[in-house]
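As a warm-up, study this chain.
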Amino acid sequence: MQTIYLVPHSHYDVAWALTKEDYLEINEDVLRKAVELLKRHEQYRFSWEQIFPLKVLEERNPELWRDIKEMLQQGRMEIVDGQYLMADTMLPSGEVLIREIAFGKRYCRDKFGVDVRAGWCADSFGMNAQLPQIYRKSGYRWIAFRRGARETQSEFVWRGLDGTTILAHWMPMGYRAGFYLDRLEESYIELNKYAATAHILMPSGSGSTPPQEETVEAARRWNEEHRGGSEIRIATPSEFFRALEGEQDKLEFREGELYDEDLVSVFPQVCSSRAWVVLGARKCEGLLAAAEQFATLAWLLGSEYPGAELTRCWEKMLYVAFHDIIAGCGVDEIYDEVREIFSFLEEHLSAILNSSLEFIAASVDTGGEALIAFNPLPWQMKNWCEADVKLAGWQAAPGLEYDGQEVESQVLELQRDTGGKIIQARLGFHVDLPPMGYRAYRLVERSREPETGIGGGEQEVKNEFFRLGVDPETGMVEVSDQTGKPLVKGNELHIENEIGDLYHHRHMFFELIKSESGEGVHYGAFRPQSFRVEHGPLKSKIVFSGGYYCFRWPYRLYEKFETRLYKHRVLDFTKEVVIYRDLPRIEFTTRVNSRYPNIRLRVAFDTFKARMTYFRETQFGVVPEPTELFASLERTGTPAGIPNFLSWFSYGDATRGITFMNRGIPATEIRQSKVYLTLLRSVGILSADAEAGALIPTPDALELNRDYTFEYALKHHDSDWKEAEAYRHGQEYQHPPLSVQCTSSGDLPREFSFLELRPNNLILSALKRSEEGDDVILRFFETKGEETEGEMVLFRQIKRAAIADLLEREECELRPECYQGNRLKLKVKPFEIVTLRLKP
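Now compare it with the structure written out below.
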């Protein structure tokens, strides 16, 4: 006999079609109704997802909160997933996903005395490949999810990148399968098509919808009418999974990322709506990581640890990571608070970071006035550093000195007082910094200029790695190696037709409005405004400015007749391209202000070679993507969407490739040899088809007259992504050196390393003080998919070391022979996330 586990629940949106306050009021009523039904019906059960509203309820309605606590402790109400808020699982960094879980589960433990065991990803846009490891190392036993699987059994064992497995259930009908109580028969038939066992999970709830009084009667009636064939049991997800565990050996295995073609046509479009949200989230994620890491180092040197302030910042970041907020698919009103959060985080995290760096700098013996460059990464880093220095009326331009030798630097800006003396300068220089450490450069009067290594002319720049030519009419670049072999061409703006909504890209009649190479509608035209090449010995920059006009005259035979008039300018842009003498990286900065509604703006590159596969960074690892699966334009009529949610992807093979890096550009498409980065979409409605949501106007999402800055970079390599260490280049682009100007006479030497991880395929995720006690939490992961003999070197002696889970709970103490002095050695499995709890 089949058992149907009817699970009453309510999906909570912190903000989406309504505001945060609206949803708090609605869900307080939902919870009140659930408690009433639980008190009235002994057989009733109810499940709740997220912790943020419970935390608010504790203060707003303590009596209701106590009733909820009682029901939880009786086991009649269950918290599923139990995260602070239900983050999207593809866009935020891996560390953000961990903190969502940690903040939520800690509250459940401290306030309710319960440990959440069932994951419940009811509304995320896909499931990243490391979720099995993340969930299992956070204490979960099972996971149920809605999106990412198709045409499969609804129950299976999901194996993650590192080999970790978790018992999983895919919701074939979403979380509303049992919501319509008069259609239970239809839902049962549909779910039975996918069920792998006689146990059928039937979620019975919807978004912020009150539980139904009739549920108990509907279950009773079903059991009378289906006696001997099937039974409905009003249950919690844990009851279903416990029953399913007994038949786990019968289930199929599925591996890797759960991201199907339905999501391919949606998610790369929705996450490029309100592009400023992902741009801001990436910036704040980086600030949070750096502030926490350097605050920890400063604490180990004797500073006070800003734990309360960091917690406050993390809670705001976790709010932004909520799936409907970070994806940009909510109504306009909810994003005012997001802007306020970004301003708050930038201000407070910058203050924490600067205070920590200054404390560390004060502990250094600088030997006079100095500029200290800090490396935020745990490996030796060669990179470009720029810093503003204040000067007390210098006559000569400033320079830098280290170990008695003047260091090559480039003066980028000078500011003089009324008497002509220099009071401020901006210096740029190549650094070679110790792992998560610093080097102090003394400020001296400049005695010589650098030996130039960047050549070129009016339309070309070149270094030892490549030649870069630029078209002065379009700003498009063509990069070749020293033999003249073309490597990549582009940085070409494409304006495309957009009649979709916050979720979907759609076009009417035609897709391309205009490209800088001239393709598209003949009425409009790009027009150059200015072009210059700023040659420098260490850094050179190409700057091109222009605009787009909807109408030019004459608009026919324009190849023959000179354009006399440009009218209806709707787009202003500036494209900057930077190359360095000693780095093989090319950096792009594109600034845009659009008054053009209903467009998608992209930038295109031609790699001159089509590949079948590309590799992209995912949370705590790298995944391959077969490009032909997404080239669905001809097959479905839907533009192909290639996910590129984090900071880099590599398009190439074992002999040649290009790594594309970005700072907050999550949507990419690959068509044959061409790569398209989506900069923004201009849409004016939440959902045009009334399927994804209501037909609510979103004028703010039209992105009109908003100043945008997009930053991206590329690096060519004659090898695959592993040999080229694409992950290292992505990290170094994301986390450039930091600097502090100071004069101090501390005990630390002029060059020092606080933390080193070897080899460099071990990527740092977190360095922080433990939430309980005064231990150091160090989290890192392996990113090449190779078993690695890892070594960690700390600047302090290690008195005790243990392996912990992602919630910082100790799992096993390491044997003393694993660490000696300040060094610790550990074997790390492919794609393994390691959390160490250290007593320095």
